[in-house]
Design goal:
Among the domains are: 78 residues, no CATH class; 64 residues; 193 residues, Tetratricopeptide repeat domain (Serine Threonine Protein Phosphatase 5, Tetratricopeptide repeat). By secondary structure, it is mainly alpha-helical. The protein has 27 helices and no strands.
């Protein structure tokens, strides 16, 4: 699990690319003319460390005194950011720089040049829907016009006031939409999907009460982006999968309409693709999934996809999640296991930058790979990584990890442990309000199964399968089938073949007939 409390300077240095490290050193040496600067020695020492260890750092670098270290680190942190900012192509950094230039020109008494620079800021900001920078430029422009005779005041007062009002309205809507989308996403991260009718009603009431009044046709890029995000999270939480697909597609199409924003908002773009891939996955739209995966792979290898560490890491995460889902869809679990070693190496490499939520998802998906391939012992190892963590987010994932853990022990034949786990997992899921009719039927079957003879067990599996299939149409139990392919497992027990063979057969039949089948592995 990533260490969120590590040293901030160490994190920053580890995030730098090789060109950025060279750029920083050139900047530091050029500004001092001294190749033996202590801050460069400190930079090199931290860069060489795999884990931050202050005692080791001081022991190996005698020129650095403990009482100096805090100030040196603060200075180095500032110098790194200053050094790499000069070469940044980020639009927001360039706009900030232009605002700084306008201020410098104003302080020199060059008012007309300052106004000219501010006009460039406004024009560029408008092209990239950067309303906050437009507002900053407008405020500064009004200040100059009101304090000095620039010969441009005629007619400008009204224009500037109208422009300011327009920008303020956009910022107000943008603030409301982005906050609204964030609240919905936060609910999902905390709880997962709606668990009962009470959750559904509460979400519906919240959505209707807080969705800002707006006209989609009149929105700019960011307003539409957050509008689509809010609807994506809302429909996904309620397990309205067609609605989730519809708004995820709108999210991605927005970037197709504004391709220049893929560089500026690359994380938003790949997150939209990730949601679209998830929608295709749960709906088992194979063709759509393949197209979206291809788009994500192309972006991952493009200049925009490799522009910085953050984009590279986030794209890697979403691409790997999609490739794992592809194996679940195709029933190629054993083949998918070839991903695990490389995946674990990269997760360790990126551990400073990957949040706990993503790690939980990777652990669960890897566990499902092992379970589907018949290696229940390895599945249990990865599920334990989830179970041993505090369930303070994605309580749904914690619940289904415990349920799969129970089933894996049942498969191994650890019946004494299974009897204990049935009670333990049942209590946990009830406490987390993640217990519905599907889980009730599973627990009831497992309890009865210990008293069944070999002759009775197959009919019992068939009866449970019939009961669960009748529940598929109920939206409130959809999540049970999204997280765990319980029907596939039951069919494997009935036909006495591996789970992988069941899912693979369904995929080949559906591909041949161009018809979707019901998928149950996880989301």
């Amino acid at each position: 699990m990533p260490n969120r409390n590590t040293d901030e300077l160490f994190q920053l240095i580890k995030s730098l690319s090789k060109p950025e490290k060279r750029l920083f050193k050139l900047h530091a040496k050029r500004n001092t003319g001294n190749d033996d600067l202590k801050i460069i020695a400190l930079f090199d020492a931290l860069d060489a460390m795999q884990e931050y260890d202050e005692e080791k750092l001081l022991r190996k670098n005698k020129s650095i005194q403990k009482q100096q270290l805090s100030n040196m680190k603060a200075y180095l942190y500032k110098q790194i950011l200053t050094g790499i900012s000069h070469a940044s192509e980020d639009v927001e950094i360039k706009l900030s720089e232009q605002l700084m230039f306008a201020r410098m020109l104003y302080n020199k008494g060059l008012y007309m040049q300052a106004l000219k620079t501010l006009n460039k800021v406004k024009s560029s900001a408008k092209n990239y829907s950067q309303s906050t920078y437009r507002l900053q430029a407008l405020i500064f422009e009004k200040k100059i016009e009101s304090m000095h005779i620039t010969r441009s005041i005629k007619g400008r007062s009204g224009d500037l006031s109208q422009e300011s009002n327009d920008v303020n309205k956009r910022l107000f809507l943008l603030s409301n939409l982005s906050g609204f989308a964030l609240q919905l996403y936060s609910w999902y991260i905390q709880h997962g999907h709606a668990r009962d009718e009470k959750d559904e009603q509460a979400l519906y009431d919240f959505f209707c009460k807080n969705l800002p009044l707006c006209n989609e046709a009149e929105m700019d890029f960011y307003e539409r982006l957050y509008y689509y995000q809010a609807h994506s999270w809302y429909t996904f939480i309620l397990q309205d999968l067609l609605g989730y697909y519809r708004y995820s597609q709108k999210w991605v199409d927005l970037f197709h309409e504004h391709p220049e924003m893929k560089n500026l908002e690359s994380i938003q773009y790949v997150k939209g693709l990730n949601n679209l891939l998830s929608a295709h996955f749960v709906l088992l739209n194979y063709r759509g999934f393949e197209d979206a995966l291809s788009e994500l792979e192309i972006f991952a290898n493009s200049e925009d996809g490799l522009k910085d560490v953050n984009t590279e890491i986030q794209t890697f995460i979403y691409l790997q999640l999609a490739k794992l889902n592809e194996h679940f869809m195709h029933g190629t679990f054993i083949k998918g296991l070839s991903m695990v070693e490389h995946l674990e190496e990269k997760l360790d490499e990126y551990k400073l930058f990957i949040d706990t939520h993503r790690m939980l998802i990777f652990y669960y998906k890897i566990a499902c790979l092992y379970f589907g391939s018949g290696n229940n012992e390895k599945a249990i190892e990865y599920l334990n990584l989830i179970i041993h963590l505090k369930p303070d987010l994605r309580t749904d994932l914690h619940c289904y990890a415990r349920l799969l853990h129970l089933i894996a022990h049942y498969e191994i034949g650890n019946y004494n442990l299974v009897e204990y786990l049935i009670k333990s997992v049942y209590r946990f899921m009830a406490k987390m309000k993640n217990l519905n009719t599907v889980e009730e039927e599973i627990f009831s079957f497992l309890k009865r199964s210990f008293s069944l003879s070999q002759k009775e067990i197959i009919p019992a599996f068939k009866l449970l399968k019939e009961k669960l299939e009748k529940l598929r149409g109920n939206p409130l139990v959809t999540r049970s089938f999204m997280y765990l392919d319980i029907i596939g497992w039951l069919e494997s027990k009935i036909e006495n073949v591996p789970v992988q063979q069941i899912i693979r057969s369904k995929y080949l039949v559906s591909k041949k007939n161009r018809m979707p089948v019901t998928n149950l592995i996880l989301q």
